[in-house]
Design a protein that fits this description.
This protein has helices spanning about 5-40, 50-55, 80-95, 100-105, 135-145, 160-165, 165-175, 190-195, and strands at about 110, 115-120, 200-205, 220-225, 240-244. By secondary structure, the chain is mainly α. Among the domains are: about 80-195, no CATH class; about 200-244, no CATH class. It is globular.
């Protein structure tokens, strides 16, 4: 390296280091002067002390608004209480909590180490019992009890019978709900979704493997829900819904 370049490099390095030190000193001096000016203004020395006090006073912390809570469930009649006990006893005698359908609805699987049940669902709103994530029987008892409460208790503005309509329909087919005692399960959002799909038949699709896409390298299956065609219309699978 030529001596002139070396001298220029050393001088530039020393200059940049000195410049950085000056910047640090100037910043510290400016911050100190600003703080002193603010405090002197707050003390009434050369300035509007009221304005300075307002500027230095932090805004009051507002208390968090309480979360909206649903009203407590209405007390059940004696007939409803007896019917709930009968349903829970029948479910225990049939061991519905250990049936494959209930375990599928709640996504239960055995832990590979402890061999105890756990649900793959990690949303607390998915369960009606505080221990429902790992106790199938208590979740079933809590589900049956929730079906007797028509109160909306979720952000989706639906009662338990409409939020978990698959549980409701399956337990009704297994236990036989007395609709004269239980509240009616009126689910407008489910009806709107069902009418929008208008499924008339289900087709099992197996796409062939596509090596350029890792997601379908080994192929996969999905269900296609084909709507019912009206007279004069041509059926098109592009308008069908799919369940992957």
């Amino acid at each position: 390296m030529p001596s002139s370049w070396l001298g220029m490099s050393l001088s530039g390095s020393l200059l940049s280091r000195t410049f950085r030190q000056d910047i640090v000193r100037f910043s510290s001096l400016w911050i100190g002067m600003a703080a002193a000016s603010a405090w002197s203004a707050a003390a009434g020395i050369g300035g509007n002390s009221a304005w300075a006090a307002d500027a230095l006073t932090p805004p009051p912390l507002s208390a968090p608004s309480p979360a909206p809570s649903a009203p407590p469930p209405a007390p059940l009649s004696e007939a409803a209480q007896q019917h709930l006990r009968d349903l829970q006893d029948k479910a225990r005698s049939l061991e519905l909590a250990h049936s494959p359908m209930w375990r599928t609805l709640l996504h239960y699987q055995q832990h590979p180490l402890t061999r105890s049940d756990r649900s793959l669902a990690d949303d607390p709103d998915f369960f009606l019992s505080p221990v429902g994530a790992h106790d199938a029987q208590r979740e079933l008892d809590a589900t049956l009890a929730a079906f007797f409460d028509p109160t909306v208790r979720h952000a989706l503005e639906q009662n338990a019978a409409c939020r978990f309509i698959a549980r409701y329909q399956w337990l009704d087919s297994e236990l036989g709900f007395d609709k004269a005692v239980m509240p009616a399960a009126d689910c407008p959002r489910y009806r709107q979704w069902r009418e929008g799909i208008r499924a008339d038949k289900v087709t099992l699709i197996f796409p062939s493997a596509y090596l350029n896409s890792p997601a379908s390298m080994y192929g996969h299956t999905f269900l296609r829900l084909d709507p019912k065609t009206e007279p004069g219309q041509t059926a098109s699978p592009l308008l069908s819904y799919a369940i992957n």
